[in-house]
């Protein structure tokens, strides 16, 4: 049997090109199913004795006998992990190249003490320079191993028994028992499986770094999400200094938590006031911009939505969005056309969310519509106005979650008017006038006031 090392398709006959994915010279002979890291474990003591769960002595507050979690040094990051890193767990840290994955794990390594840093990407000198920059107190003791061979990784973790092992990155490691190129689905899975077993056996927590590309590479961390205990994702625009560390999956804690960080000279540092930072560089008031309030996990975040509309000169009008789902934009444009009578079909429409943030939350609808309407009408929305609310197909403005949190943040940032869906018991605001909007038609009238 032959197996393609890039897409894992098997075939009975060898050919120069994989018939499924079209890659050249990727078919390799595969006698049977890959031996999933059996050689590397060498331990066949499978437990069969049932465990009396009630006798474990766990309390309802999370369990008294659970080992203390490893402190990663950054309060926000500890929090999104549910209180630190659990012993023997496998964490996946995913993100685009250059976003700051190696930086944040080094910061964790500095805080955790006694960490083993394994890199298949960088030399000891490169990693050492980064450490020097981040560990100004020079107190950390980080051990480095440069390898791409999984067996070396396995032996190093067994020999050192570090407080934490960091593997940078899954795409560069090669498992000796599995065919295929490093970075391919088969290899990436084998590495993750083997590390999971190793972490469980030794109790050493492991952070596995995985690169993702904008288009989502085949062997990307997506294929690993169900294997690992925790999935963290570091996001943001590389050109911008703001980063978001999100937790998508967590077997030991909450998900949907976000840490907002800023890439500075001394690594990724927490941002105390993300909304302020995002609004700091606001442009002069021009038609087509309005601020909305998103929820990032439990935190309100004020961001500016920008729309630019130009008369379509030829063919179909164009619609482009950054930070907003294109399909959502199409729907909102249809609503603006039908319910507000805006001539949207005569305009090319470009929408952008400032700061590389994604506003894929229905609460952004109203602000997106207002930005587009403001651009077409060439009317500036005052910078003291903020808007949020979901826009329904008949043009009605619907309620969104966490209204009061959003309003409080708006007031804190000095906004004077908030256009929001009509809510029962709207909180009374001292310095913010809350204007209830029931349908999209009334929005423009309100703007003009
Ligand atoms: P890096 O962690 O190497 O990204 P990744 O591992 O995700 O590919 O870091 C990316 C960028 O961060 C790099 O361009 C340099 C910058 N950087 C800082 O701005 N400050 C710092 O303290 C460090 C260590 C890096
Ligand atoms: Mg890196």
| Straight-line distance between termini | 74 Å
**What sort of overall outline do the alpha carbons produce when their principal axes are compared?**
globular
- What is the correct CATH architecture of the largest domain? 3-Layer(aba) Sandwich
Main β sheet profile: 9 strands, mixed
Radius of gyration: 26 Å
Within CATH, the superfamily of the largest domain carries the name P-loop containing nucleotide triphosphate hydrolases
Unreliable spans are 34-42
The strand line-up of the biggest sheet is: 6-5-7-8-4-9-10-11-12
In terms of structural class, how would the helical and strand content be classed?
alpha/beta
What percentage of amino acids are in beta strands? 15-25%
Level-1 CATH class name of the largest domain: Alpha Beta
| Helical content (DSSP H or I, runs of 4+) | 25-40%
Q: Name the hetero compounds present.
A: thymidine-5'-diphosphate, magnesium ion
Arithmetic mean of pLDDT: 86
Total number of helical segments?
11
What's a quick, concise take on this entry?
The protein is an alpha/beta fold and 449 residues long. The chain is built from eleven helices and 21 strands.
Description:
Strand 1 (2-4) and strand 2 (10-11) form a beta hairpin. The protein is α/β, with parallel strands linked by helices and 449 residues long. The radius of gyration is 26 Å and the shape is globular. The model is unreliable at 34-42 (pLDDT under 50). It contains 11 helices and 21 strands. It has helices at 38-41, 75-80, 101-112, 124-134, 150-160, 185-202, 274-280, 326-339, 365-377, 403-412, 441-448; strands at 2-4, 10-11, 27-29, 90-95, 115-119, 142-146, 164-168, 206-211, 230-235, 242-250, 258-264, 267-270, 289-296, 299-311, 319-322, 347-353, 385-387, 390-391, 397-398, 417-421, 433-437. Helix 5 (150-160) packs parallel to helix 6 (185-202) and helix 8 crosses helix 9. It has 3 domains: 1-31, no CATH class; 68-270, 3-Layer(aba) Sandwich (Rossmann fold), CATH 3.40.50; 277-448, 2-Layer Sandwich (Ribosomal Protein S5, domain 2), CATH 3.30.230.10. The strands form 5 sheets. The chain has a 9-stranded mixed sheet with strand order 6-5-7-8-4-9-10-11-12, with helices on both faces. The structure holds thymidine-5'-diphosphate (TYD) and magnesium ion.
